Amino acid sequence: MKKIVFLVSGDGGTLKFLYHAINFLNLNFQIVGVIADRECQSLQFAEKENIFSLKIKYTKENTEELQKQLFFLNPDLIITNIHKIIDEKTLGIWENKFINVHYSLLPGFAGLIGMDTVKKAKDQNVKFIGSTCHLVNKEVDSGMILQQGCFSVDWENDNFVIDTVFKTACICLLEAIDQSQNKSNEFVVLNNFKVQFSPPISSNTDVFTNEFWNLIRNS
Question: Is 116 helix (H, G, I), strand (E, B) or coil?
């Protein structure tokens, strides 16, 4: 079973997605810990679902507590949703185990946090938008890309753009974790947007119904 730790600072949308996707798809993954640098909804969700959770003080100069907890949890993968840059020493200890989800088609809008990428894309009238899942290295948002999904956008009718970017990011994360060889689906329809994935995906997205996404929103 692949053990996963989330480093968090916010609402935990991708954390909630992966937790419910594991149950819906009966995946051989387990979220073994949620570590936060502040009080947030992610911690509340972890406590509710009886996932090991802890708030710590973390900076690039104060790394001992994070490293202690990661040694204790011994994860196979570490998802970095934390609003901090991970220090080089910690990245070196768990080399190629840190994964980040970014709400843009990197290298576009690197360095922006959360959905600030969508606002910037709209300001610049970008014609294609999406999400990227990548390995984390010492340079911000520059690690090897594992999965991307994109779709064309009309900013005059953008009511569902942010939601589609989020759903695309969730599927990108799931595919980056899943090492299945049966990856043949290049396109998925999300909120009536035709999302193209590269590389192709294997996820059975039919189970991700409106009821499923509402479960995440209400978690």
Answer: helix
pLDDT of res. 41: 96
pLDDT reading at 181 higher than 70: no
Q: How far apart are CA 23 and CA 27, in angstroms?
A: 7
Burial (CB count within 10 angstroms: exposed 0-12, middle 13-18, buried 19+), residue 97: middle
Reduced 3-state DSSP string for 141-179:
CCCCEEEEEEEECCHHHCCCHHHHHHHHHHHHHHHHHCC
Whole-angstrom distance, CA of residue 109 vs CA of residue 118: 9
Q: What is the mean pLDDT of the chain?
A: 94
127: three-class secondary structure by DSSP:
coil
SS3 39: coil
> Looking at the DSSP assignment, which residues form a beta bridge with residue 135?
99
pLDDT digits (tens, 9 = 90+) for 46-62: 999 999 999 999 988 89
The DSSP annotation for 51-106 comes to --EEE---BTTB-HHHHHHHHHH--SEEEEESSSPPPHHHHHHTTTTEEEEESSST
pTM for this prediction: 0.94
d(CA 90, CA 151): 35
Under 8 Å between Cβ of 135 and 144: yes
Segment 4-27 mean pLDDT: 95
26-42: pLDDT as tens digits = 999 999 999 999 999 99
